[in-house]
Structure formats: C-alpha cells, structure tokens
Amino acid sequence: MFPHLAECGLLEFDSQDTNFATGCKLKFTRTQNMAEIGIGILGGGYMGKAHAVAMSAVGAVFNTKLRPRLEMVCATSPNSAERYRQAYGFQRATDDWRVLVKDPKVEALIIAAPQSSHRAVAEAAFALGKPVFCEKPLGASLADSQAMTAAAQASGCVNMVGFNYIRTPASQFARQLIADGELGEITMFRGEHTEDFYADPKTPASWRTNGQSSGALGDLGSHMINGALALIGPITRVMAETETVHKLRPGGAVTNDDHAQMMCRFESGAMGQMYFSRIATGRKMGYAYEITGTKGALRFDQEDQNAVWLYRTYGPEATRGFTKILTGPAHPDYEPFCQGPGHGTGYQDQIIIEARDFLAAIETNTTIWPSFRDGLEVNRVIAAATASARDSSWQDINPF
User: Fold this and answer.
1) Which element (helix H / strand E) includes 68?
2) What is the pLDDT of residue 31?
3) What average pLDDT does the chain have?
4) Which residue of 156, 238, 245, 301 sits 20 to 30 Å from the alpha carbon of 94, by its own alpha carbon?
C-alpha cells in the first residue's frame, strides 16, 4: 500500500461503499514487478498536455508499480488530434470521444476538456468498467455532477477529480498542521483564487465566457472551495455575490460571472470568506489562504508555492512572529522531485502527484481523495452560492 498517502489524508477508503469492491477488473500487461496500463486522454490543449507529460514522467518520479502507456488522444478535429499524438507520444489519435472510450487498449480515461463534455464521457467509460480522472469542475451543472457521481458509485470503478493546487507540498503540510492541532481550534479561513487572464476587456470571448463554463465562481472558485473543504472541513451555509464586469468582448457577449465573493460557515463553527476573480489585474496565480486558530496561524500564496508562513503562540513575545518555512524533503511529496531543501516544486509536479494517486487507486482498487463524491461536494457549495447570489440571502448547503 501507500502509507504516505494516508498520512497526508489522500488515501480514503469508504467501508460503507458496498458497490466499490464489485468494480472494474482490469487486466494489465505485467513485466516483472510492474504492469502497464493504457491511458486515453480527451483533450490535448493546456490540461491535456499537462496530463500527458505527467503520465510520461510519473513512473520515473515515483517508481510506480503501474506504468502508464499513452495509448490514444482525442481532440476536436483529426488534424489537431494527430498533432497532439505526435507532440506527446501517443500511439494513436481520434476526433471521436466514443472511439476513445470504447477502444479496448484504452484502460483508463482522463477527461481534460470543457465541462459540458464531462458527463457523457464519464458515464460511457463507467459503463465499460474503466477508471476515470476528470478535470474540475466535475459537471457542467449540479445535476450533471450528481449523475456522474451516481454512475461512478454504481460502476465501482476508480474515480478522481483534478484539484491539483491543494497537492503542493506546502499545502499538504498545512493540512497536516491543522489535522495535528498545531493551530488549535480554527476560527477563521480567508481564501482567494484570483487571476487576470480576462482583466483586459479586449480579450476575446471564448468557451470560458459562455454556457460551456460556469464562470469565475465555478472555474476558479472550485479550486479554493475544494481547498477550504480539505483544510477546514464541511461548509454548512453561504452568502454570495457574483458580477459580470465586462459584459461584451470581441466575439460575443459574456454570459457568466467575472468575479464572485462569498461568506460561509463551516461545520466546525469557523467563519470563512472567499473571493474568486478572472479579472484581478496583476494577479497571476492567486490561490492563497490565511487560517487563524487559537494556538497559531498560517498563510500561503501559490505565487510563492514553496513556502508556508507559520505563527505559533508560544515563546517570548519579543521573538514571536510569522516564520517562513521553505518546503524540502521533510515535507509531503517533495523528495521524489528534488533532494535539496528550498529548491522547490512547480505546477507540472502537482499534476504528476495526481497521476501517482490515480495509478495507486487503480492498482489497489481503493478510493483516493478527491473522488467524484468530493467533486460533487464542491459543486453543491457552488450551487448554493449561485442561489444565494440570485436571491441575496444566506443558503444552507443541505438542500443542494
């Protein structure tokens, strides 16, 4: 097994999930102590490339027993699919997702395409008994997310959602500190996911600004909401506002939100505030949070992703203060990438960690966080926040 995953809270077997053990039975090509698995990826763009690179590197980085084989890539046209095949090293290419899913040599699926495609592809893969890794947000709507989670549960197949930012060694360390009680009782969480890729109103409209995407709240907010759930625990109610600042862009009208703010209450009693924006001028990767507890506090910013600032309430008053802790081999999932403290890990490394977890889940037929069920919890919070913004009222999470 993988004890380091359990220590980091990533390995999560649900003994009440009676369907899970009856799931897909994959036959891998075994060579000595290793086995191959054919990987199919839907989408060859930004995230498709990241997952292809991760699957190519994960065996060397983590010495996984299950070794990925880049079997097939699917894109929107034959030309782009073939281009991705050559660039990333896939065996074959197609422009039909049904061909991808049904191919017997494609033994596990990665969905790295707009969320409007997620449900159909995932349901088809589960029907054939194939594990699925789906990029966030899980579904294009709460109904889609519920259906996808139900299909995953009924199939018993391994399923994961791509929340990569919470996997940095620094955030895994923060999660450990909180779980170990180092900060005492958590009283306040403040988080943001802010970027400026749409800060310029002259930036053309795209699928991200129309009905294929759930806006800043669903696109960026899902990452920070997932982070808040992982760090602090379940959210019970929310109060939110959303706004479209640039309503018209070259190429069309904008039909979803540019930024959103949200207050929340956690099940633990802690207060929370979050802000999500794709028009935050000057912010490039503002996945950041501050956590206050009765015995300490910490803060983290993804733009300085190899450091955590930690405050502890002991020692002489004159020497107290936030201490910058640089990540190194003593922190979770750092040493496989580098043996030198302070040298740091990067964005692609987070995707490689995800690949390791997905392969470990398949090999051991075990649920590894975050599953589709965890992705659904994020979408429930987003649905409640959307209703809150519409009705200008506090919304409980339970009805969603």
Assistant:
1) strand 66-74
2) 47
3) 92
4) 156
pLDDT higher than threshold 60 for residue 20: no
Is residue 196 domain-shared with residue 322, that is, in the same domain?
yes
Q: Of 346, 340, 339, 357, which is closest to residue 302 (Cα–Cα)?
A: 346
Q: 110 and 256, same structural domain?
A: no
3-state secondary structure of 104: coil
In the numeric block, which tokens belong to residue 337?
């990438």
Structure-block tokens of residue 176: 């450990």
Partners of 161 in the β-ladder: 134
Distance CA 297, CA 291 (A): 6
25 with 142, same domain: the answer is: yes
Q: Give the separation between CA 128 and CA 102, rounded to whole angstroms.
A: 8
208: CATH: 3.30.360.10
pLDDT band with cut points at 50, 70 and 90 for residue 213: confident
**CA trace torsion 142, 145, 149, 150 (10° rounding):** 60
In a domain, residue 367? The reply is no
Q: Which two tokens stand for residue 389?
A: 């913004």
Structural domain containing residue 94: 3-164
Q: Tokens 């589960």 sit at which residue?
A: 126
Whether residue 193 is found in the same domain as residue 153: no
pLDDT in tens, 34-50: 799 999 999 999 999 99
DSSP code of 45? S
pTM, two decimal places: 0.90
Cβ-contact 9, 370 below 8 angstroms: no
- Give the number of domains in the chain: 2
Q: Is the pLDDT of residue 19 over 50?
A: no
* H/E run at residue 235: strand 235-243
Average pLDDT (157-161) is 98
Tokens describing residue 356:
């390791």
**Could you tell me the two tokens for 144?**
């889609």
pLDDT for residue 33: 61
